[in-house]
Amino acid sequence: MKPLGHPRRPSRFLTILATLAFTASALVPSGVATAASTVDAPPAPGAAACRAPAGDSPLREGFPLPANALPPSGSPVVATLYVDFDDAPGDPREIPGIEETLDVSVKALDDASRGALTLQRRSHPVWTRLAGSSAEWEEGQQDLASAVAATDDAVDFSTVDVVWVVWTTKTPRDAFRSHAGNDYQVVADGRTLTHGALLRQVDLNGGGHWVPTHEMGHVLGLPDLYDTSNDGAPSTRWTGPWDLMGSTIGPGHAYFAWHRWMLGWANDAQVACVLPGETRTVSLSPVQSDGPTLLAAVRLDASRVLTVESRRAENWDVGIPHEGVLVSTVDVSRTTGDGPIQVEFADGRHPDVRNEATLLDAPLRVGETYTDAATGVSIHLDSTGADVDVVRVDASSITPRPVTATKTIATYRTTNDGAKIIPLDDLVTRDTGVDAVAFGTFDLRDDGAFLRNGEPFFADTDPDARAELAEVRAAGIPVVVTLGGESASIWSVLSQDFDRYYGNLRGYLQMNSFDAVELDIRTDLDTGMIVRLVDALRRDLGPLSTVSLVGDEAAFAGASDSAPDYPAVAAARGDDVAWFALRLACDAVVTGDDYRRLVAQLGMPPEKVVLSASTSPALCPAGSAFTSSDEFARSLQDIVAAEPRFGGVRGDEYAGALPGGASAPWQWFATMTAAMNDPAPQPTVSPQPTASPDPTASPEPSVSPEPTASAGPTASAAPGRPSALAQSGTVVWLGLLPVAGAIIAAGVLLAARRRRTTS
Questions:
Q1: Mean of pLDDT over the chain
Q2: pLDDT, tens digit, 9 for 90 and up, residues 510-530
Q3: Which of 179, 359, 596, 642 is the most buried (most CB within 10 A)?
Q4: Rg (Cα) of the chain, in Å, rounded?
Q5: Angstrom distance (rounded) from CA 657 to CA 616
Q6: Cα–Cα distance, 208 to 22 (Å, whole number)
Q7: Of the segments 159-163, 486-490, 533-537, which one has the largest average pLDDT value?
Q8: Which residues on adjacent β-strands are paired with residue 718?
Q9: 195-200 and 179-181 beta bridge pairing
Q10: Contact 525, 495 (CB under 8 A)
Q11: Average pLDDT of span 696-718
């Protein structure tokens, strides 16, 4: 029996094992960790997916708020001035009442922001006479500058952030009502005043403190929600009285929960963002409370968001006749006064006339449902209680347009053959198995112009293109826009001024309603720039968007000074990229062995790795060899046999593709789809199980086996530059694994033997 009380000395074997383990860990380079640290982290999931991006209008919906807006938190100083005219003299006895109205507005904003915005209001409470008549002043729209100049001797503007000007008028006219702006350039006491609100006394008399509160909404960057078209329809037809930016009269005035979120007065944790394909039950607290959830939202598409909030007869809504759940559609493509938000009615309860009276009846009651006609997304009010409304948000009807694991992608770059238009009808109607159509190569010039195949292009002004796009979409096939290509300028202009040119790009993509974006980058674009672009596209085009990348062999090996380092891009944003397409040489014949090496180099699962092949020798350099469609089809069979999770093929391009040529280019795509569905009976490499991981489980590291060397198109990285695996340290670990395994096995045997000899 072993003596007690004396610890057993570690065996020499265990000491050696520990030393080897320490040494192995010291040998592993930190390439991937170091590379990843230079790239921003991916956008946080959750509420961010519902942050539809704002357009370019100074007053608009969406994120972020305009750069020139007053920050929605802090303690800005507000100077109040009173001006009158010979034809409209101000009454000093009315100033105390106006001052009280303005003070109530200050308190209202403090309450609405939950104390985030506390205005420090100072006043010069005397009427200052301006030259001319009130009509001349209004017609000349002199507003802020003349009022500041007239009071400069009596008011210190050196610390002022916002100027409120109250003015009198003899004959009130709608053409010059109370208004506000953020682009004033008035200099006084060494300070440039940019934020101002002009408050007509007659408006204050009628609308009370809601008038300055509404105008401060503009100063904070919010748009008008009432209709400004003057087309004879009710001006309140969009939102009625449900948001102060839509009406300063009526029983309801609270800011929409969407506006509170834009202003930062509701945080991301208080927003339930329901993603496409999801169905969630959400408990909503009243919008004016500080409850745990104030807004439920669904991003319907690139520009529209469905919002849901609880409205109760309290605080700013104290007079509303119907409580319940308010459903609205936010459209960030619409600007101020053009209906950027529209309040919705329950199914079957749409009134003939939309105005303030009918919209007061808009909130859903228990058991009612609203369904978005365009997408099928529905909101159902399950129950209501003292301090919560429970809604079921069903977004299962919207999912990304399907692109299968094994894909056939048609690139449609040429629209005509001489004078003959090459239609897409056969590609769509015949059994080609096409999963996506890349609708040409697009570029962005430094003058902001967009080109498709070298010519200016907008779907709305090209009836043939519009008809083709509609036909492809009607067949359920996503339409892809390929950005870049050979001699493209888009990457240089984005590198020069990303914010400016990306804004143009985003607007163009949204205007033409493309379903996916493919980045064909043939320059050494920085990984951080690619990551920034992928993040922006995924955010701005909505949750249904798809982003893919096209590159050459060097890019996929991470071994070129004239192409991006795609393994680094894959490591940083692989989850946000739908597929990586390798652009093959015209004479390439890829084996299953080659494909496995490609997947290992890139570091992505096979489902995301596509081969992009030329479909005709006319696309190849003069005198170069060309892989026939039959030979390429046999190559695909070999690849699928070796790797059942093969990502697919991209045909570049449709028009003139062989064997059908100009009369039947669809045959190339049908041939390749058939080949991928009929793998070779004798694979060159025995396939290994590659089941897709459980998305709910933590990812486990996996490494594809190192195949034997091959002279195929996915050869090893260029000399002098380590491969992607070597950079990541994976090769070092792989080399150590057999040694470590042998040592551990020996340790187990040794321990077992010692147990037998000492028992």
A1: 82
A2: 777 788 899 999 999 999 999
A3: 359
A4: 33
A5: 5
A6: 75
A7: 159-163
A8: none
A9: antiparallel
A10: yes
A11: 34
